Give the backbone structure.
Amino acid sequence: MFINYLPGKMVEIIGLTMIFSFLVGTILILLFTSDQANTKNLYLKKAK
């Protein structure tokens, strides 16, 4: 793999970037899916 030719610090930065982007993506997906589930409940509460 090409990671074997990179310096140690660069491999660490790439690993941290991958973990951070995975966590941010998971949080964004959870936020967007929770918004869709809650909008129906809010509209029903306002209608009553």
Notes: The chain has a mean pLDDT of 78. Residues 8-47 form the longest helix (40 residues).
